[in-house]
Design a protein that fits this description.
Elements (H helix, E strand, L loop, with lengths): L4 E6 L2 E5 L1 H20 L5 H32 L4 E7 L2 E6 L6 H24 L1 H7 L1 H21 L7 H14 L2 H28 L3 H33 L2 H4 L4 E5 L4 H11 L16 E6 L2 E6 L2 H5 L22 E3 L4 H8 L7 E4 L5 E5 L1 H11 L6 H10 L8 H10 L13
Parallel strand pairs: 2-3, 5-6, 8-9
Antiparallel strand pairs: 1-2, 3-4, 6-7, 9-10
Length: 425
């Protein structure tokens, strides 16, 4: 879902409005106008003003619902990126999930609790508001009922509803597995979505177009959310099961320590020639140059010596005398799970990893495009070559795959353990 337009910041959280929100605001205004007219309210301008105010206050209630989630999430140490109002209500985007089932349950319960509190407040104010103006009493009563409906609807036990998040936290607490909690809650959400589609079709056939179409939209949205959640589960499984060796490539060249800097320069020129096969043909980062001394790995060398020394000295300077230790390169064992490689590649200034064998010897390299391509392949998705080439040029995951966020969520939730496969640097 697109982020929409930012209109404000609340407690440091950006508040955004998706373009679809304008459509649902208009639709709600029309529905409320019809309700007030049927209830006997008089004055066209007054009815439309009351209907528009009711629609606005309804979305203020939705915003407070999402703020309830967000403020409790902040108290649990979870950063909230934004709150977006859209066609189906509101959505709070967070950078990760809570690390404990108790924290997840508190965040999930906060929204319905706010809606229930608002329902009680509005219903309690119905009589005083009705004494001031009958239309005002109708509006307050309607908002109380809508907030009560919002709370009860969100407590249905299926993702992506708050009740589904509560169910997930409960199963997580009982089984110790967040993944199992997601699977159970997602299955319930899929069942509820299918029920909504069936009920919406039945209502539509009964001749009630508006409610029927709305139920169909809810069912369609729920099935889409269930499908995305299933894809996330498959993505997490791929990051756990695949190893660095499955994604590594050999994007480094090898030079002898006894060679001269002029030979290094000549190899650089050959590597830059597209007619010469080798790792330089691949767009993106230039290949590393590793230094060997009679079959033994000695270090790594860059263009620093070529840039700092005059050309006249290149013939007399040995490559090995200017090499840096291999330990200066960010590295990872080839048997480490891919989620660990994702976290390493998310560290500042780490653009590529040196892949090491169990004996600690270089066997390849790992970059974000390589990792993303293997993950997509495990998911059964073929990345179009132009998109893969674009990812290599920018050293990014293909198609904007947010692997770092997924890996951090897996680690923070306890789905994986940080000591599962220690990295090497």
């Amino acid at each position: 879902m697109a982020e929409g337009w930012q209109i404000a910041r609340l407690w440091g959280i950006p508040l955004r409005i998706h373009p679809t929100w304008l459509a649902i605001l208009l639709l709600c205004t029309v529905v409320f106008e019809r309700n007030y007219r049927l209830a006997g309210s008089s004055g066209d301008l007054m009815i439309w003003a009351l209907a528009f105010l009711t629609a606005l206050l309804l979305f203020v209630s939705v915003l407070l619902h999402e703020l309830g989630h967000s403020l409790v999430a902040l108290s649990q140490g979870v950063k909230v990126r934004s709150i977006t109002l859209f066609l189906f209500g509101g959505f709070a985007s967070v950078d990760r999930e809570c690390a404990t089932p108790t924290g997840a349950a508190l965040v999930a319960a906060a929204g319905p609790a706010v809606s229930l509190a608002l329902a009680c407040l509005f219903l309690a104010l119905r009589a005083p508001a009705g004494q001031l103006a009958p239309g005002l009493g109708q509006m307050v009563f309607q908002l109380g009922g809508l907030n009560l409906t919002l709370a009860l609807f969100n407590l249905l036990p299926g993702l992506p509803l708050d009740g589904g998040l509560l169910l997930k936290a409960l199963v997580w607490q009982i089984t110790g597995s967040q993944r199992r909690g997601v699977q159970v809650a997602n299955s319930c959400g899929r069942f509820l979505s299918l029920m909504a589609l069936g009920l919406g079709t039945w209502i539509l056939l009964k001749g009630q177009g508006g409610p029927g179409l709305w139920m169909l939209l809810l069912g369609w949205f729920g099935l889409g959310a269930a499908r995305r959640q299933s894809q996330l589960l498959r993505l997490q499984a791929a990051l756990k099961e695949l190893r660095v060796a499955d994604a590594s490539r050999r994007r480094f060249r090898v030079v002898e320590a006894a060679g001269s800097l002029r030979q290094l320069s000549q190899q650089r020129l050959l590597g830059a020639n597209p007619a010469v096969p080798g790792p330089a043909e691949t767009p993106g980062l230039p290949p590393w140059t590793l230094v060997c001394d009679r079959g033994r790995w000695q270090g790594v060398i860059d263009d620093g010596p070529l840039q700092s020394l005059p050309v006249q000295r290149w013939d007399g300077e040995r490559i090995g005398d200017h090499a840096q230790p291999l330990s200066t390169l960010p590295a990872i064992p080839e048997q480490a799970p891919l989620w660990q490689a994702v976290l390493r590649l998310d560290e500042p200034e780490v653009t590529r990893l040196l892949v090491l064998s169990p004996a600690g010897l270089p066997t390849g390299t790992l970059e974000r495009p390589d990792l993303g391509e293997v993950v997509f392949s495990r998911l059964g998705v073929q990345v179009p070559p132009p998109l893969l080439a674009l990812a290599r040029r920018h050293n990014a995951y293909p198609m904007g795959l947010a692997l770092a966020q997924v890996a951090r969520s897996m680690l923070n939730s306890g789905e994986v353990q940080g000591a599962e496969a220690p990295t090497t640097s």
